[in-house]
């Protein structure tokens, strides 16, 4: 009789109850202010990033033509991060991280790469529907995993490799559907150019992410909230300076006045699109930074996975973006790839703990 006894199967309700207890314990370990800030940061990612993408595409669909101006808008909101950084020195009773030659040069290089990255994405939004540009931009996850493995020696597992393959397949599906995915005023050659620039921008974004992590590992040696904000401020500042030079030298800054007059809705609409574009992009970056610090890269990955369909659906509703069966399939496959990546990252995190 003793040999025939077996452990009864765990019911679904027992699993739910156990999860609720674990969630409640995790909730009690942190003050309410932590969860409020985490909620606001996650909301900023899910609202601000899609809004920024929609506004970028709205600029071009309403008569804007400059790629430099949109890339300039992406970093023009850097003072918002500085306004949040400075009070942390007083409340946290910390001092600014001293700058040395290596750290300064790393910020300059990252700023230049960020400026180039924003310019590539500006070309993408000029020639692609916002929903397509957002889907292609999700390929940055592939390059983040690749460069993280090569430069930072981050671990990878079968789930992460699976995610890389899946997202690559999703990008290929979009490429096969180019005929039904273009605006009437965009030629096939411009669509192809936008596609290429989006992929290159995603690759550069993945490289920037890996290099930023390398700066923390090699030069800073710590990862506190104010140090993360300092890096964001410095990189955005140098990106702003590089992009400002580009806007002035190209003559696009001088042409903003005439462009505003021909913009659909007039000068007021023109200024609102640019101002809110700068604010939303910076709020999205701040939200992502806060989520990474307050929680984990896994939660940031979950929110990134969610914001891709939010951007696509919003673009279809607000901008009448084309949404074919191929694009829906690509969207579902991309989401699957994110889930696989999140699972793989979570497994690695548990293994190292």
UniProtKB/TrEMBL annotation:
Coiled-coil positions: none
Pfam family for this entry, one: PUNUT
InterPro entries for the chain: EmrE-like (IPR037185), PUP_plant (IPR030182)
Domain of life: Eukaryota
SUPFAM superfamilies on file: Multidrug resistance efflux transporter EmrE (SSF103481)
Subcellular location: Membrane
Keywords: Membrane, Transmembrane, Transmembrane helix, Transport
Membrane topology, from the record: Multi-pass membrane protein
Transmembrane segments: 35-56, 68-92, 104-126, 132-152, 159-176, 196-221, 233-250, 270-294, 301-319, 325-344
A single GO molecular function term of this UniProt record: purine nucleobase transmembrane transporter activity
Gene Ontology, cellular component aspect: membrane
Family to which this protein belongs: Belongs to the purine permeases (TC 2.A.7.14) family.
PANTHER family: OS09G0467300 PROTEIN-RELATED, PURINE PERMEASE 5-RELATED
Protein name as catalogued: Probable purine permease
